[in-house]
Every structure is written in structure tokens, then in C-alpha cells.
Design goal:
This protein is of the alpha+beta class. It contains 4 helices and 7 strands, in the order αβββαββββαα. The protein has a domain at 28-62 and 85-113 and 123-195: Mitochondrial glycoprotein (Mitochondrial Matrix Protein, Chain A, Roll). It holds the Pfam family MAM33.
Length: 205
């Protein structure tokens, strides 16, 4: 059984390598530096007295409907049919740290499931801000006691200003598009690595 499993994994790795779009991770425009720790990625940028970091994790970043299709296509390869493009749309957290304050503004953003892939609506943003809070700078554990603003019930004018505030710091639709591409490439890379680890694990006697 293990031998068959290992052979299946070998074929699967070959297939995945074939459809892998990026051999190296795509670059983000706008001077972002990238740090990757396993499934977590962090983008950093400094702008006039501010440090902006965007953190996201590729785990559970593929929308469920795609995962089901993916299971089916990965399970039964029909050579004529084009596989649906698997896209990773992770939630991402933007932190804005001003040099002269002890507070960090934290904006929790996500891609609404129905928005992704809907072209043609130029006006709509492809990501939304879900929550906003202040956190003490430099502390890794966020305080549950700090007030967190949920944007569901927010005055739209204030929400627009928050979106503009992000756009001024380089977090706009272009950024969000590139983030999807980066995250998708990272997810695929990790998936292939996982299959390789699984193969070694299965073969290990």
C-alpha cells in the first residue's frame, strides 16, 4: 500500500510542478520587502516616519468551493479539461506604526468571497476592512481588552477614509491583486513541498 501511495505522490508532484506558474515567488511592486516563515508571510515598507507591515498566512486561504472542485480535478485528471485556477485569497493584517507614538493601528482585511474574480466593476474594492484597533507597539500578544471597531456598522464616510488611508500607504487594489498572486504562488510551493515531505515520510521504513 505504501509503495503505491509513494508512486501516486511522485506522479502528483510531477503534475503540480508542470502547472506551477512561478518557480520563484512573484515580486510585489511598491518597494515591499518580503519575509516568509513557513506558511506566514510578512511584507514590510517604510514611508515617511511610518513603518507598514502586512501579514498573512496561506493556511485555509483557498475558498471552499474551489477546494471541492480542486479535489475532484486532482483526483480524476481529464487531459482535455482546463483545471480551474486555484487562487489563494488570505485574510491579511495591516499594521501602521508611527515612529513617534507607542501605538500601532491594526486593520484586519479580507477578500469578500463574492467579489473575487468579478471583473468589470472598476469602482468596487477587491478587499474590505473588517476590524480596526490600536495595539501597543512591539507587543506580540494583542490585548483583548483594547477596543476593536467592527466595520459592519460603520459610517461609510469613515470607512472610505480608512480605505484612502491604506491606499496612501500602498495598500490598494493593485496591492491586493498582487498579494493574491504572491499568496497563490506561495500556497502552491508549500503544497508541492508538503507532497514531497509526505512522499519521504511514506517511503521511510
Amino acid at each position: 500500500g505504501d509503495k503505491a501511495f509513494a508512486e501516486f505522490l511522485t506522479d502528483e508532484i510531477k503534475e503540480e510542478r508542470k502547472i506551477q506558474k512561478h518557480k520563484s515567488l512573484p515580486k510585489m511592486s511598491g518597494g515591499w520587502e518580503l519575509e516568509v516563515h513557513g506558511t506566514e508571510a510578512k511584507l514590510l515598507r517604510k514611508v515617511a516616519g511610518e513603518k507598514i507591515t502586512v501579514t498573512f498566512n496561506i493556511n485555509n486561504s483557498i475558498p471552499p468551493s474551489v477546494e471541492e472542485e480542486e479535489e475532484e480535478t486532482r483526483g480524476q485528471q481529464k487531459p482535455d479539461e482546463q483545471e480551474p485556477d486555484i487562487t489563494s485569497t488570505p485574510n491579511f493584517v495591516v499594521e501602521v506604526i508611527k515612529d513617534d507614538t507607542k501605538q500601532t493601528l491594526v486593520l484586519d482585511c479580507h477578500y469578500p468571497e463574492d467579489e473575487v474574480g468579478q471583473e468589470g466593476e472598476d469602482e468596487s474594492d477587491i478587499f474590505t476592512i473588517r476590524e480596526v484597533s490600536f495595539q501597543p507597539t512591539g507587543e506580540s500578544d494583542w490585548k483583548e481588552t483594547n477596543y476593536t471597531l467592527n466595520t459592519d456598522s460603520l459610517d461609510w464616510a469613515l470607512y472610505d477614509h480608512l480605505m484612502d488611508f491604506l491606499a496612501d500607504r500602498g495598500v490598494d487594489n493593485t496591492f491586493a491583486d498582487e498579494l493574491i498572486e504572491l499568496s497563490t504562488a506561495l500556497e502552491h510551493q508549500e503544497y508541492i513541498k508538503f507532497l514531497e515531505d509526505l512522499k519521504s515520510f511514506v517511503k521511510c521504513q
